[in-house]
Each structure stands twice: as structure tokens, then as C-alpha cells.
């Protein structure tokens, strides 16, 4: 995320995060309630130090099912304490004991039946509880910034997780699109393609942040509905839409690049085309990858934001983000995060 513009100002305070997994907690909130019947078991699982795929594999082994019958809604961090939903195909109505799934790294918090399997992106939001430690200045200094973020939100950048170690995923995408890199694994191809798409979006958003229009209407904008993947292009901009933008019911959007006609027009489309055209290899590769043009909100609004100053150099921040928004992009506007290697060293000092 180097080189991307800041909405407020580049933070002067540094902080450690994920000193231990409990310092970074996430709870996934579904967009619906399981209906209580059907051939699919929904399991709410708490994991600690595991990837989402790690849990999926354990469920496949436990239930003796192929990966297509064990699904999840969203990906969650490994270095964190998280709760997320999984579904497994289980037609048998026999009483099922899931105690053998429990370990020091994962536990089943709830089991419910549902008629349909869990699809990717079925959650509405994620609740975060994040502790920042070893602040380089007093924690009280962050309160003004938190209040501003609570009112105006943050740029909805894709976080560093999307781009891999040292941002290598975008480089790999370039090699893949050019034919220099052959990738048989479908999942790995998807990671690189997603990184390329996210990179182009971040470049467009950064320009909008620089021009101070990331949270304002620009002629030709396509507006995203808050908390939804739906968007619309206003026939004309009026006071009603301006008020909806002000109360954060709608947000400007940016391109998730693919084939087909760009969904914005006028000045907005001109800006997007200019920025994306500078990345010819990624642009062409995405258009040929079978993806269609989509939109993503430029603004992310943290809801239910609250904080607790635990001591002069430690603060606990709790908030909720819509699915697809990154907590690290929220934190980026607040503090400079020390590399995780530093946090891991700090963990050894504190807990051994």
C-alpha cells in the first residue's frame, strides 16, 4: 500500500498490532439466519492461528467430504482470533457430536441446519476488536482522528493481505498475463487475478483521495448502496442524492476491472480509463480472464465505533465493517503499523 494517498494526513504515531492473536479479533455476521432445516449443517467456528483453508481441510477430513461440499463465506486472518461460518453437506439426521473437532486452535460455537449451502460472500459484515500496543505517543492523541473517521469513514482500499508478501501477487499477475508464468492451480490463478484487479482499484481510489473526491460526487459517478453490492448511475445529481451521500446511505464507486463497457461515464470514466490504461498488461489480462466490469465503494464506513484507552501506550478499538472492507485500511489512517516481525518479537518478550 506504499504510495497510496491518505484521506486525512499520514499518521505520525507508530503502533504494534497482533502482538498476540487475541489482540486482533473478528466475528463474521451472516446476511441471514439459518432456517433450521435442510441437508446442510452451518457451523460457527472459532479459530486461533489457523487459516480458513486449514479449517476447511479439517472439516473435509472429519465429515469425509470433498471440498465442494465444505464451504465458507469469507476469508479470515491466520494471525487472529476469529469466528466464521462454514457449511457441510450432511443429509443424515442422526445426532452429530462435533466435540472431536475442538482443539486448542479451533472450537465449534454453534451448529444449525439450512436448506442451502453457504455461498461465498454470504456475510453482511465483520465485527472487529483490535488492540494497538506500544504507541509512540499517548493513546489520547488518537481520539481526534477516531472521531473524524467515525464521521467520514476511510478510503476503501484493498489491504496488504490481498497482495501477498512484498506485493508479489501483482508481479506474479503480470508474469501470468504475459505468459511468462504458467499456473495450473485454479485457486492460485484466482489469487493473482484478484490482486491485479485490486491494484487497479487502489490506483483509481488513490487519485480520488488526492483530489479530495473519494467521498464526493463526480460527474458520471456510479453510486454504491451502503452495505450492498448494488450500484446505480444517477440520471442527474440533486439535493436528495446529495443528502443520501452526506448521511452515508450511498458512496461513490470505483472500477473492478473486467471485460465490457465501463459502468461509469463522463469525467469519472475519463479519470478511470486514464489511470487503468497506464497498466496495459493488467488491463488486457483482466479483460481476457473472463471477468465482467463491476464496482466497489470508494468509501468504507466503520459502524458502532468505540475505543478504550487501556493505558498510555495501549488502546482497544472496536468497530464493524461491511464485507470486503479491510481493517488494516482503517488502521492505516490512524497509525503506522510496525511490521508483524516486530510484533512477534514483542510477543516473545511479553509471554515467555
TrEMBL record:
<dbReference type="InterPro" id="IPR020119">
    <property type="entry name" value="PsdUridine_synth_TruD_CS"/>
</dbReference>
<dbReference type="InterPro" id="IPR043165">
    <property type="entry name" value="TruD_insert_sf"/>
</dbReference>
<keyword id="KW-0413">Isomerase</keyword>
<dbReference type="GO" id="GO:0031119">
    <property type="term" value="P:tRNA pseudouridine synthesis"/>
</dbReference>
<dbReference type="GO" id="GO:0003723">
    <property type="term" value="F:RNA binding"/>
</dbReference>
<dbReference type="InterPro" id="IPR050170">
    <property type="entry name" value="TruD_pseudoU_synthase"/>
</dbReference>
<comment type="function">
    <text>Responsible for synthesis of pseudouridine from uracil-13 in transfer RNAs.</text>
</comment>
<dbReference type="InterPro" id="IPR042214">
    <property type="entry name" value="TruD_catalytic"/>
</dbReference>
<feature type="active site" description="Nucleophile">
    <location>
        <position position="77"/>
    </location>
</feature>
<feature type="domain" description="TRUD">
    <location>
        <begin position="153"/>
        <end position="300"/>
    </location>
</feature>
<dbReference type="GO" id="GO:0160150">
    <property type="term" value="F:tRNA pseudouridine(13) synthase activity"/>
</dbReference>
<protein>
    <recommendedName>
        <fullName>tRNA pseudouridine synthase D</fullName>
        <ecNumber>5.4.99.27</ecNumber>
    </recommendedName>
</protein>
<dbReference type="InterPro" id="IPR020103">
    <property type="entry name" value="PsdUridine_synth_cat_dom_sf"/>
</dbReference>
<dbReference type="Pfam" id="PF01142">
    <property type="entry name" value="TruD"/>
</dbReference>
<comment type="similarity">
    <text>Belongs to the pseudouridine synthase TruD family.</text>
</comment>
<dbReference type="GO" id="GO:0005829">
    <property type="term" value="C:cytosol"/>
</dbReference>
<keyword id="KW-0819">tRNA processing</keyword>
<dbReference type="InterPro" id="IPR001656">
    <property type="entry name" value="PsdUridine_synth_TruD"/>
</dbReference>
<dbReference type="InterPro" id="IPR011760">
    <property type="entry name" value="PsdUridine_synth_TruD_insert"/>
</dbReference>
